[in-house]
Fold these 2 entries.
Entry 1:
Amino acid sequence: MLSILRSLVQEVNSARDLQEALDIIVSRVQKAMGTEVCSVYLLDPATNRYILMATEGLYPDAVGQVTLAYSEGLVGLVGSREEPINLEDAPSHPRYRYFPETGEERFRSFLGVPIIHHRRVLGVLVVQQRENTRTFDEGEEAFLVTVSAQLAGVIAHSEATGVISGLSLTGEEARDVSFNGVPGAPGVAIGQSVVVYPSADLDAVPEKAPEDVEQEVVLFQSAVKAVRDDIERVAERLASQLRPEELALFDVYLRMLGDDALPGEVTNKIREGIWAQGALKQVVQQYVRHFEMMDDHYLQERAVDIRDLGRRLLSHLQERGQEQLEYPERTVLVSEELTPAMLGEVPKGQLVGLVSVKGSSNSHVAILARAMGVPTVMGLVDIPVNQLDGKELVVDGFEGQIFASPSDDLRAFYQAICEEEDELIRGLEALRDQPCETIDHHRVSLLVNTGLMTDVVRSLSHGAEGIGLYRTEVPFMIKDRFPSEQEQREYYREQLEAFAPNPVTMRTLDIGGDKSLTYFPIQEENPFLGWRGIRVTLDHPEIFLVQVRAMLKASEGLNNLQIMLPMISNVSEVEESLHLIYRVYHEVREEGYDIHMPKVGVMVEVPAAVYQIRELAERVDFLSVGSNDLTQYLLAVDRNNPRVAQLYHSYHPAVLQALVRIAQDAHVVGKPVGICGELAGDPGGALLLMAMGYDSLSMNAASLPKVKSVIRSVSREWAMQLLEDVLLLDSPHVIKSCVDLALRNAGFGRYLRPGKSNSAAYAERAAS
Ligand code: PEP
Ligand code: MG
């Protein structure tokens, strides 16, 4: 059973389009189950009707012609109940609906299972059988449910491919259909997409036509030659160490690279109009499928060799093709998984939007994007990334959705939102030098989170009073080795100088989890519960000591440095870190530097720290809550996983209760407490935190003017009442709506995109 399923999924995965995928499904399922009919009906979002999309056993002419309303017939019943329906005599069921054009009057038994993807019913998979033969048994029902669950993602993906090309399920023109992910960084961008993909990853190669066929052929031939040379060299080197039968593997490789084998087929495809990388991908995938389906275990294993060869050829092709990557004036960078390094590749001033399949709004790349003010959508799981290359895209970072090849009307609609947003930001510029103080004179410090030098420039122009979190891992991430002490010192000095005499809080290296350094990979089953933050640096004092030394030396003459320790879950980690910091401090002074001992603080990011606030606070100068991680750990929701993004909620009552407790306990010991998670940059979140008594709020520069204008317009008393009210509620969504309503009533509706969803507003406008 498993092997049938595996080969079915593989075949469907490599179908060229949705129709081919569905045809494969019905024919393979019909055969595997030995039924007379297998059909698939998909729910067309445009008409909300089920369409018979493919069948094996009903009259073929009925495909595309037979449609049912959302709750019509047995198909509608399966869809609306969201569970299988297994009937011995379907025509006698009150919901049976007969379509003469299908010829289905011959069939009596009926088994239908819904196709559901991320809670959305995509369609219904049906098998039918003639009278007096048999009903479907439990095993068959379970098989069909398994097939449907496995294929739902593939169908969603193929459906999306059609939509990107501007086609609906029925092949009609479908414009302005949105793809939904999660908001990564607010704002709207309209630009041209550039798909960046991890190198030497065949699956990620996009479909493209070659600019010059002959040039592509030459490029491919030279890649073949280079790989042949590599293999011959390796074989020669290993000749004395391997037995002849082991060395024969290299001959297999070289034979595969013979002119009439793989290279011949790839060249033919290039001549048919596919660029070399795409042609290679198609041929390798064909071979791999072929080998994987073989019953012989030895031959199945050969698929691995083909894939390896494919990767080698691709890597040579990419080496040569690399300089061809061009970034348009308004680049929207799209990738399976965006990395900070990819952002750095785009020439200055040309990056307007970001789209990532993996990750969620609290992934580090989203945080970077917010710091840079680049509208971003994350977690677009069903998007066929490869199809987006070169397309015009609208990125709606408020709602977490994108549109490919927008109509003129939709483009104009979003253009107007961009202009409105610019105007709003310009209007806030006047607040730059005003203090962040409520109308009843409660003062809060507004600080910024930084990582790159561009953040610093933006922060200064937005009137930040210092840096509440400098993520030192950012300069580490954009290098290909650990930066030296001198290099670190230069990075740190820039940040310290830009804000002096205001405080600059530098967090010691916080890697692990989703923040990896290419040159220091950490492979773990469970990285967020593993070797992260302070755990890594205490195990590697040589990294920690160099970093602290660089920070202290950089602070000479400025004395505005504060050091902050990430991922603290034990008092002993604070004590060990303090010991190392003191040691470096004395050494650096002995070297003749005129420095002051910096203030040292602890980040509160894990539940253990919440219950040890007093013990921690007694040992350090300040506390700062990392609400991004604290939310993740309190709610047991991976901050990067788009599947559970709906459960990640910083307005969750448990998170709010923890935040209240932290502020109270820190103040009991007389230590200042701030917050540097994303909640601080959310106008509603900032109000609640100010009411809780947080002394400072540190956020991305783009959010700062909005937060300041909200805080300056209310009284602390009003905010405390709001806090008291929401602490009585038990649903994060109701709490959020309550805070939004309060903001709206206070005149800040404009800060609340999406107040009314942009796409809903557009649909309303288009209909009128
Ligand atoms: C946090 O966890 O809230 C935080 C500020 O740190 P980071 O997002 O860098 O993990
Ligand atoms: Mg953190």
Note: The mean pLDDT is 88.
Entry 2:
Amino acid sequence: MGTVILGTGSCLPKKVVTNSDLEKVVETNDEWIRSRTGIHARRIGSGDEYTYKLSAWAAQKALDMAGVTADELDLIVVGTISSHMLMPSSACFVQKEIGAHKAFAYDLNAACSGFLYSLDLADKYIQADHNKKILVIGAETLSTRVNWQDRNTCILFGDGAGAAVVGYDERKRGFLGADLYSDGGLWNLLYMHSPQSLNKDLMVPDNDGAHIVMEGREVFKHAVRAMSDAVRGLLERMDLGMEDIQLVIPHQANIRILNKLKERLELPDEKVFINVTEYGNTSAASIPIALDEANRQGRIKKDDYLLLCSFGGGFTWGAGLIKW
Ligand code: UT7
């Protein structure tokens, strides 16, 4: 009856960048970053730790846990806004890296909601054909897409990848559904400045690269309201209460956003998975990395209700429910 997660995996770059390290890059300090964001450190890709490489390494761990081989995969979807190249997609690179010969592959751009949107999409394919096996990934190297002179943004983000292999299960469990939303009208509160696309005069190329621009305070308010409303709406639709949920895995944006979410939804600390402290905001990768860590730590038991919720540029947001 359901689309189930057969295996999870994640991969973080080796290089740890602490708040003190950032004091050498922009005018900031450990105390400010910790108190405003909860972030202690983030991982930053180096060498060949590109978005697709991190994705492929995370994918292999998810395949191993699932007991599925790469050539059994029918589809690879990568939620990302920091692909190694704009073309080909990260998903096509992953297909090559892991040798998923019969899978078709594409990227999905929903910013920090990329994994949740991709999981919802995979569910639709699987409900249409129960034999399908799909690799869903959220992966970013946002260190390549921030302005390292802008202290409002560069301290927030980190790199990493998380993956899930999904398939079909006869029992009534798995991905029970999601409520997803977008509001393009608010695009200018959080976007990636893309000079290449804006430059109409190809004879005078722009030199500054694509980078994130954000109205932090406004994003903060929208994120709290949107995620808590999405969660409430989904639970109501599913005829469940917060007391039925064993674990919430929210997008790891900022500890203050997560604390507000807990307050609004009256969630006790032990029901909310948090790792933003160690990895910063890894955008589309944050939910699948947290999901893999929660899974490997034994935080999710069979038949548990697991709630995912996200918010990101677009705006895009939503909530999804899984019976494990
Ligand atoms: O996936 C969604 C992605 N986006 C987010 O999650 C971001 C949501 N927003 C936030 O998390 C918060 O708005 C921030 C953490 C980005 C900023 O916190 P804030 O409490 O909203 O601070 P602020 O932007 O109002 O800035 C307060 C002060 C300013 O100085 P003045 O004008 O009061 O003198 C800033 O210039 O803090 C200053 N400031 C910094 N100081 C030290 C801004 N960034 C820094 C910094 N270090 N890195």
Note: The two ends are 13 Å apart (CA to CA).
